[in-house]
Specification:
This protein is of the alpha/beta class. The chain has a single domain, classed as TIM Barrel, CATH 3.20.20. α7 packs parallel to α8. It is globular. The relative contact order is 0.13.
Length: 351
């Protein structure tokens, strides 16, 4: 009896291993055949980890093919804090310090990236200031490589009144204050130049105003659904519909406090619940994914920690793919969620 039980256990173990390998092969095939877009991320390791910043090659360069192979991400929408940081990174790529890397300025750059198997950086900023009351600086940032601008970062703290573009999601209870006159000018300027407008941290009215003002698709690259988890940083169904109406994309990010407010942590299923709610509200053509954190996540103790271990490492999107396949999603649907929806916006705006 014991021998039979041992044989049966071994058989199940081999069967599970075979299925896991088959699923892994499916994932590898999917990631190889599709352009995977992370709607907002930082393509380097977190400070304090064994591999800090970028892994250096023997010749002193940094090979972003390593990032692409490790994460499956072909195009990273990379958040930068200051224009100087962006210029520094662009210069490093141009000087050959980063290999297998394409700076995304036009949609044709994405096609080049895809055809050559390289990794793409599309620069985004959550801090569009100092503007000094004018849109003129945006022209220079665009020339330097900026291609996505978030109108407001969380709160309006430290932003001069002359530079306010709207109201942030963390700015008290003021949900009636929306896009400022300068904010409307910034949206128009971005539309004209070919810069994507992002409303991830905007409050409800600023989000709706931006959607009504823009003649180009709007993104909310990294948030969750307020109907599932009430949180200032999450978007209401009205906001999600407004973003979709512009032709834009609503990106779901797996940060714990946005995914589950029970105080008991969060799981892959919590993340998928937000994803599926957004799909039900906006349609599958208007939903994407975004890390919003470092390549290998953050320490679990941090407030902005990811919702579960599977999503807190560099293999997070492979794990999500497997989970969604198990729920019956087709590769055609998953190609939209994992990249095609963002690519549609990029093709429209980055002309």
């Amino acid at each position: 009896m014991r021998r039979a039980l041992l044989f049966y256990t071994l058989f199940l173990s081999l069967l599970w291993t075979s299925q896991a390998e088959a699923q892994s092969d499916e994932a590898k095939k999917f990631f190889a055949e599709n352009v995977i877009v992370d709607g907002l991320c930082f393509p380097y390791y977190r400070p304090g980890s064994t591999l800090h910043r970028f892994p250096r090659q023997e010749d002193g360069t940094f090979d972003m093919g390593d990032y692409r192979n490790g994460t499956g991400v072909d195009l990273a929408v990379w958040d930068i804090r200051r224009p100087e940081e962006m210029k520094k990174m662009v210069s490093a790529v141009e000087k050959g310090h980063f290999t297998n890397t394409v700076i995304i300025r036009r949609y044709e750059d994405i096609e080049t990236m895809s055809n050559t198997g390289q990794h793409g950086w599309l620069f985004h900023t959550q801090h569009p200031w100092p503007l000094q009351g004018t849109t003129a600086p945006i022209e220079g940032w665009h020339r330097d490589g900026l291609r996505m601008v978030q109108l407001v970062y969380g709160s309006n703290i430290s932003v001069p009144s002359s530079d306010r573009l709207g109201t942030g999601s963390s700015s008290g209870d003021d949900e009636t204050s929306g896009l400022t006159p300068l904010g409307k000018d910034v949206v128009a300027t971005c539309n004209r130049l070919g810069i994507i407008v992002d409303v991830s941290h905007c409050n409800r009215q600023t989000t709706l105003d931006a959607c009504a003002t823009s003649c180009m698709p709007i993104t909310s690259t990294h948030a969750g659904c307020d109907a599932i988890t009430p949180a200032r940083r999450n978007k209401t169904d009205d906001e999600i519909r407004a973003i979709a109406k512009t032709g834009g994309v609503f990106g779901i990010t797996p940060i714990k406090f946005m995914i589950n407010d029970s105080g008991k942590g969060a799981t892959m299923e919590h993340f998928i619940a937000h994803l599926e709610h957004a799909i039900n509200v906006a349609g599958i053509d208007h939903v994407g994914i975004a890390s919003d954190l470092k390549r290998n996540g953050v320490p679990e103790s941090e407030t902005v920690a990811y919702c579960c271990p599977e999503l807190n490492g560099e293999q997070r999107w492979f794990h999500l793919y497997e989970a969604l396949r198990a729920k019956g999603y087709t590769d055609e649907d998953l190609a939209k969620i994992f990249g095609k929806n963002f690519l549609r916006v990029f093709e429209k705006v980055l002309r």
